[in-house]
Amino acid sequence: MNNIALADRTQAFDVNAVRRQFPILARMVRGKPLAYLDNGASAQRPDAVIDAVDDYERHHHANIHRGVHTLSQEATALYESARNRLVEFINARSRHEVIFVRGTTEAVNLVAQSYARPQLEPGDEILITHLEHHANIVPWQMVCEQTGAKLVVVPIDSRGEVHVDAVVALMSPRTRLFACAHVSNALGTVLPVRRLIAAAKARGIVTLIDGAQAVSHMHVDVQDLGCDFYAFSGHKMFGPTGIGVLYGREQMLERMPPWQTGGEMILAVTFAKTTYNGLPNKFEAGTPNISGAIGLGAAVAFLQGLDRDAAERHENALLEHATAALSKIPQLRIVGTAADKASLVSFSVAGVHPHDLGTILDEDGIAIRTGHHCAMPVMEFFKLPATARASFAFYNTFEEIDRLAAGVERARQLFA
Amino acid sequence: MELNDLYRDVILDHNRRPRNFGGLEPADASVEGFNPMCGDRLTVRLKLDDDKISDIRFEGQGCAISTASASLMTEAVKGRTRADALRLFDRVHQLLTDDAAPPAEELGKLAALSGVREYPARVKCASLCWHTLSAALRSTDPQGLPAVTTE
Complex ipTM, two decimals? Predict the structure, then answer.
């Protein structure tokens, strides 16, 4: 290790200073300080996001892109500057490539219905992996039913990894689209998306990456990745619920018909013909979630103001600490042991059902997710009905993880 | 509210050693219950002697509350008539959801489930087996059974 790396390490991430910006983290749950370890389901919001939404609601709300009056212009400017923030955040080429949607689920559905459905013919193939969230399975199943295309699934290995070779082996001349998670929500696996996208591109296969679990943990650059589509949700990256982004390469989005129709997405309507609006408005029919977009823009600004490398190092240290602490517990099995993992641990304890574990930990003020994580095929692969999942954000502490481990051990003893 | 009020010894015991657990062949009724929220899944099978539940067994996978509740249920309804078993379901449902429910003497060991009502997210765990039983009984004769008030 050289001196520069040492210096970087010692520049500690000030987790308490970050925590102070998240008011909810100060609350008590059942008489204990909240330990919020369910960030994979939804992350908490900093003051910056809460204040931005509050300021908009109190002072600037009106419908956007409509009125000539002051409020409408202010609301429009705030909404569009939020879009600019997101363009910067993922390094899209232009504002035309960032579509505001309700979340990752809507983004995938949009691509399935607007891109895939008109393109696919019977016998064509859509390739996904075994570790996908239901939101990256069901929209493709539906489009397969609608078009006669076939859903092909890449297997995972016992560590929960997806191998490039396994994906390439299933890419056929009929593969039209490859969709996969950037980070698995149930296992934490970080997929080798850059190489997977390159392999797909080399074969003329269109790519969609479900980034719901990635954007809060790592820097995402869509041009560097080279994907055609990238989808993510606001509330998993410290923004509001009900807002998310579909990034699409402009050439792709240009070719696609609108998905939903109505106001905003049109230029001119007569009863004979409607002329669609240009990008990105073509895909934003109706009055959008204006305050949500503004909140998401504020979340991006918050993240940009953070030392993200230091935050990522802190998250990795949390993951290491949690893996070590949980591994010491007898009868505990960590589910998902990929070499490259985001900061979450899925696990099961023999004799303790995850649901009981969730209740027992809640009694200690510790919030984790229990269940199938909307990834039933993953649970089936590991022959488990459900797992417990602790998912961390940069505002979590080693002490919270120690409390988690102590609570799990107590539960194990209760049911022993 | 204390955790040991939820996980009482009776519950822990029936979770560790569920009674009447396993298959039942041939059965007069067999119904699978599923809680999509948590993935709990159990099958209730029963034999009828005239109108009486002469045997009942269950199998599946679930949390401690769901397993113990099913185990306690099988003990409690064995030998009861179908209508009587459904009336008991009513009482149990009240016990699980109604704060004002009077202490139910005739519930016997089932009263151990009363801690569940402090944990609304867990009520479905305890009632899954009863809904499944109710469906199984109804599958044997849709007529002539009292209505079950649930939710």
Answer: 0.87
Supply φ then ψ for residue B68, to 5 degrees. Answer: -65, -40
A227 classed as catalytic: no
Q: How far is B125 from chain A (nearest CA, A)?
A: 9
Q: Are A356 and B64 an interchain contact pair (Cβ–Cβ within 8 Å)? A: yes
Domain boundaries, chain B: 3-140
Q: Is residue A312's pLDDT more than 80?
A: yes
Whether the CB-CB separation of A239 and A299 falls below 8 Å is answered with yes
User: Which of A355, A362, A378 is the best substitution to test chain B (most B C-beta atoms within 10 A)?
Assistant: A355
Average pLDDT, chain A: 95
Point out the residue among A360, A372, A386 whose CB comes nearest to the CB of B3.
A360
Tell me the CATH number for domain B3-140: 3.90.1010.10
CA–CA gap between residue B24 and residue A274 (Å, rounded): 64
Whether pTM > 0.90 for this model: the answer is: yes
Q: What is the pLDDT of residues A379-406, one digit of tens each?
A: 999 999 889 999 999 999 999 999 999 9
What b/e sequence results for A239-263 when a residue is b if at least 16 CB atoms lie within 10 Å of its CB, and e otherwise?
Answer: bbbbbbbbbbbeeebeebebbeeee
Joined together, the tokens standing for residue A385 give 């009905």
Q: How many angstroms separate the CA of residue B114 from the nearest CA in chain A?
A: 16
Distance from CA of A317 to the nearest CA of B (A): 30
The number of beta carbons lying within 10 Å of the beta carbon of residue A306 is 17
Q: What are phi and psi of A246, to 5 degrees?
A: -110, 115
- Side-chain-facing half-sphere of B75: CA atoms under 13 Å: 15
Residue A183 has what DSSP assignment? Answer: B
Does residue A3 surpass a pLDDT of 50?
A: no
In order of start, what are the domains of chain A with their CATH numbers?
Answer: 3-33+307-415 (3.90.1150.10), 50-304 (3.40.640.10)
> Which residue in chain B has the smallest CA separation from A374?
B37
In the block, which residue shows the tokens 């001119």? Answer: A268
